[in-house]
Amino acid sequence: MKALRAGLSRLLGLIHRESRDREFEDELASHIDLHTQDNLRAGMTPEEARRAAKVRLGSVESIKEGVRERQGFPVLESLVQDIRYALRGMRRSPGFTAVAVMTLAVAIGINAGVFTVARTILFGGYPQLDPDNRIFYIPVGAVSSAEFEDWKAQPKSFSGIAGVNDGGMRLVLQDDSGNSEACDTTQLTTNAFQVLGRRPIIGRDFAPSDGVSGAPTVALLNYAFWKRRFGEDRSVIGKSFRLDRKPVTIIGVMPPGFTFPTPRVDVWIQSVPDRPGFFWFAFGRLREGATRKSAQAEMDVIAHRLDLRYPRANPDFLRRLRSFGEQFWGADTMALYRAIWGAVGFVFLIGCVNLANLLLARTIDRYREISLRMALGAGRWRIVRQLLVESLMLASIAAVVGWFIALAGVRIYERIESPPGYYNQYHYVPDYRVLLYLVAISIFAGILFGLAPAVRLAKLNFNDTLKDGGRGATGGIGGKRLSALLIAAEISVTIVLLAGAGLMARSFLKIYTEDVGVNAANILVASVRLPPTDYPDAQTQAAFFDRLTTKLKSIPGIGSVALADTLPGLTANGVLPYELAGSPTVDAARRPRSIAITITPGYFGTVGAAVISGRDFNDFDRESTQPVALVSERFAREQWPGVNPLGKRLRLFDFYGRNADAWRTVVGVTSNIVQISALNHSDGIVYAPWRQRPPAFPNILMGTRVPAADLALSVRHEIKSIDSGLDIGAGNGAGAFEGPLPLTDSFKSVRYWSRAVNAGLFVTFALVALFLAAIGLYAVIAHSVSRTTQEIGTRIAIGAMPRDIRLLVLRQGMLPVVMGLGLGLAASLAFNRLLQSQLFAVSFSDAVTYVVTSIVLIVVALSACLIPARRAMRIDPAAALRHD
Amino acid sequence: MTEKTEVWQGTLALMILKTLETMGPMHGYGIARRIEQTSGDLLSVNYGTLYPALVRLEQEGCISSAWGVSDNNRKAKFYKLRAAGKKEIEKQSREWDQATEILARFLAPRTRPL
């Protein structure tokens, strides 16, 4: 209590320090006065009396100092002094300040920006719904409803488990007057919103009774969809519509901004147990006290118990807990973001090293001033504190600037992350965690690298420096060694980044220039999903496509039409287990997988590929005829090396390896087409004819003789003329676009976009690093030249040639560069190994990349050294010798 | 002439408070004089410690200060004991009594030979 009171009054003392000082001076004056009076009374002469009083009082200054120490917070006050001093210093050398602040701000800003994004992906929960990261996701796959219900009721670690059947189904919502609109529909269990902790803002949530077998379909609307489609009309609640021509009643609207599990959902409908049991994933919120570890342990036990009852193909199903990032981004993306985060960590180090070097240079400039202060009695700690305050202030300003750089960076990234027209995945918001991160790294930079000059100071002998005129070699040599070391470190970090970026760029170029095996330039793609109510069986569907094909072929400019359930060169929809006739039988879970595509005759001609041996499918390959298959040349080479594949037999299974398709005879070998698949980049492909293997998803491919985009309208018109209620897409796996769309557009957005963005990020960060390192190198060399003007002048005066001087300066700069380069190349081999999973057709130890990036680095470093070197060459010896 | 001792560490505050208790409001110089006199001129008050001590006591709320006029018509800053100060005197004197008593036991002549 007493101490608190005293502290408060001391704080107040800070405010009117001056008036207090004055008052105490008065008190001391009155003290002397009173004492003098006493002395006079004791019989002294006036002068004697006053002198004696003053002598007895002692040193007025030290009494004042003692009182002042009691009155305010002396540490705080001298801190304020230090800050003022630092500010004055910054104003005096704006160039230094600008360079130091900007390099550090860029480094801090990039880090905070990347942290914002990386945090969401690596550690975040579902945006907005799960800030504490308590929801976990469990892959389910095909299970019976009975098994799902059985499983769902068991875990005690979760307060509830809900399931998502399917996301992103594009269904058509139709009202009574026939107006229809395609909407993205997600089907989930009735307790899903409860587990997520969100309730509809109007209407009601799904009730358990909605989830029983035979219950009528009910729907909840996304707020944005409600606004767009119904103009926020509340009367739609309770109204009946048709969803894919089946009756559905709208029961509510979810709150604005709510979307789950994809960024784009228009309508949620409930899942009912009579549906064939397939779940995309289940999710549950951890109960209070449960951890991921404890929950995982429990799931393992439950899964083990269930395995005995329900044999399952994929051992991860119903067992493996996934975080938000693992579920929605995937291990590869997470690895990529870890790599990016690491990369900008290196950029940060470079910024810090620059700061250290600049501060070091500045401290050397101020040796005389510092020595003088020390000679006048300032303690070493006081000086070090002064330097620390300066570097912390630079870091703070850099942090503020960096914050805005981070904001801008995140905005830009959000813009370019997805291809134009795609829904942005998630919003990245720099929240308080990002702020904390930013503050932490700024303080770290300020303290750790502000200490570099302090290390030098520990050895400073102020007597020598003062004798030396504060200029010469005493402080210089050691300082040079330290900054050379810092440069070497900076360069080695830069080369790691440059090499990594080089690898990513090279990998992207390989992908971009790769021969996909199709002629995408003149292919137009459309897709329709035929509602099962109107096209219930294979016959009606086939009839539709026959009619459509004939109509499309009649459009001038369209040369050929083919159907396929996977777009050539894009993501493979079916990566299925297969079995070769005559090969030893393996366990269902261990069967090899291949890309499987169902096509109509003429597919290869349409996409610009070819059947290179045997025959193509034809119209006689029907349900009733012998089952046939085509295999890609790569598949043939891998499975039957050196053997004629024609006549060989194989069969496919469904995704879960349960049901086998017919044994098919290979009737032809096709040229290779590079699909994107989860397996390898160079996978073989098995093709089956459309009539023998009903496709899951029909894409209509049209080979055009004119630019594909020009025909989009007429194709649309022809499709609508057959069935006006159909929703026309741009192909499965090409995003939720309205079709038809040229295949090149989908190539751009699906094949190249994210890879280009990723490579671009690495290249950007590496260039920033290179730029920062070049500035750092330049600053050190330029500073050193200006410090040694006299020495250089002397050398020139006694006959050194300009090129000797140039060599002198270059050697000083390039020696640490070469050292750093060697070190960095070694480090690259270690660090860039982490990139391997992101690289296509490029090894992490790709020699070309390392040579090219080394050359780039050396050229940049040489230029950074040459500018000061040229200045050194032009030094006028006469002027230099007078230089102070 | 006997050598004067400086005021022992930690006792100055108590002396100041006690002086103010017996003498009423006093200025800094007066307090010092009074302490020296009370000690029979055995103690010498160092002003470099006296004034900071006064500041501290005031901050802690034991004393208050105000400008006034001295007996011989001089302007001076007077310190006055406050209620908290009185309590502080009680507390500190108790501690002192205890301390001296304990010390006395150590220093007392042995009554019994070992």
Describe this structure as you would to a colleague.
- The complex is a heterodimer of chains A (884) and B (114).
- Chain A contains 26 helices and 21 strands.
- With 884 residues, chain A is of the alpha+beta class.
- In chain A, helix 12 packs antiparallel against helix 17, helix 12 packs parallel to helix 22 (743-787) and helix 18 (538-553) packs across helix 21 (712-722).
- Chain A is elongated and about 135 Å long.
- Residues 472-476 of chain A have low confidence and may be disordered.
- Chain B has four helices and five strands, in the order E-H-E-H-E-H-E-E-H.
- Chain B has 114 residues and is of the alpha+beta class.
- Chain B has helices at 12-23, 28-38, 47-59, 83-107, and strands spanning 5-6, 26-27, 43-44, 63-69, 75-81.
- A three-stranded antiparallel beta sheet of chain B has the order 2-5-4. A two-stranded parallel sheet of chain B has the order 1-3.
- The A-B interface holds A 2-3, 5-6, 9-10, 23-24, 26-28, 30-31, 33-35, 37-38, 57-59, 62-63, 66-67, 69-71 and B 27-30, 33, 46-49, 51-52, 55-56, 58-61, 70, 72, 74-77, 84.
List the topology elements:
The complex is a heterodimer of chains A (884) and B (114).
Chain A: H1 2-15, H2 17-41, H3 46-57, H4 60-71, H5 74-92, H6 94-122, E1 135-142, H7 145-152, E2 158-174, E3 180-188, H8 192-196, E4 202-203, E5 218-221, H9 223-230, E6 240-243, E7 246-253, E8 267-270, E9 278-286, H10 292-309, H11 324-328, H12 331-365, H13 367-375, H14 380-417, H15 432-457, H16 462-467, H17 473-513, E10 523-528, H18 538-553, E11 558-564, E12 575-580, E13 593-599, H19 603-607, E14 611-614, E15 628-632, H20 633-639, E16 649-652, E17 664-670, E18 685-689, E19 699-704, H21 712-722, E20 728-729, E21 741-742, H22 743-787, H23 789-797, H24 802-831, H25 847-873, H26 877-882
Parallel strand pairs in A: 3-8, 5-7, 13-18, 15-17
Antiparallel strand pairs in A: 1-9, 2-3, 2-6, 2-9, 4-7, 5-8, 6-7, 10-19, 10-20, 10-21, 11-19, 12-13, 12-16, 14-17, 15-18, 16-17
Helix pairs in contact in A: 2-3, 2-4, 5-14, 6-12, 6-14, 6-15, 6-22, 12-15, 12-17, 12-22, 14-15, 17-22, 17-24, 17-25, 18-21, 22-25, 24-25
Chain B: E1 5-6, H1 12-23, E2 26-27, H2 28-38, E3 43-44, H3 47-59, E4 63-69, E5 75-81, H4 83-107
Parallel strand pairs in B: 1-3
Antiparallel strand pairs in B: 2-5, 4-5
